[in-house]
Amino acid sequence: MSFWQALILLLTAIGGVIAIRFTTTLDLNKFLEYRQERQVAKMRAACPHTILVEVPINGHREYRWKTLAVDVDAGDGVAVKKITVCSRCGTQLLGGLAQANDARLYFERDPDAWLKQEAYFLKVARKLMH
Ligand SMILES: [Zn+2]
């Protein structure tokens, strides 16, 4: 093997290593992006779209469930189009405020279900912060 053949072989090897590293980095970024998207989807699915709020009633504290759903304008500036979204997780509620109120009533009747779902939501949300 001549000096030039050895040099070409060496440069090819270095080029190969750089190419592999570059591809790996790209794939890693894509993977992290994909994982983040999946995590956000998981968080949205976990959100009860309802919170527990303290309300003063006759001088003492009581707790009530309140929907986080709000109607927002999703129109293009010309046509008005209202959609209902959860103000916390951003999920679009296709059933509108009626669906949100159904969820609120459900949690009002079954507080344990809300506690469970809220705890799960917080667990998933915490993972997104790290
Ligand atoms: Zn939500």
Could you characterize the architecture of this molecule?
The protein is of the alpha+beta class and 130 residues long. It has one domain (3-129). The chain has helices at residues 3-46, 96-109, 111-129, and strands spanning 50-57, 60-67, 69-73, 82-86. It has a two-stranded antiparallel sheet. The protein has a two-stranded antiparallel sheet with strand order 3-4. The longest helix has 44 residues, at 3-46. The protein is elongated, with a radius of gyration of 26 Å. Bound molecules: zinc ion.
Topology:
Elements: H1 3-46, E1 50-57, E2 60-67, E3 69-73, E4 82-86, H2 96-109, H3 111-129
Antiparallel strand pairs: 1-2, 3-4
Bound molecules: zinc ion (ZN).
Zinc ion (ZN) binds at residues 47, 49, 68, 86, 88-89, 91.
Summarize the structure.
This protein is α+β, with helices and mostly antiparallel strands.
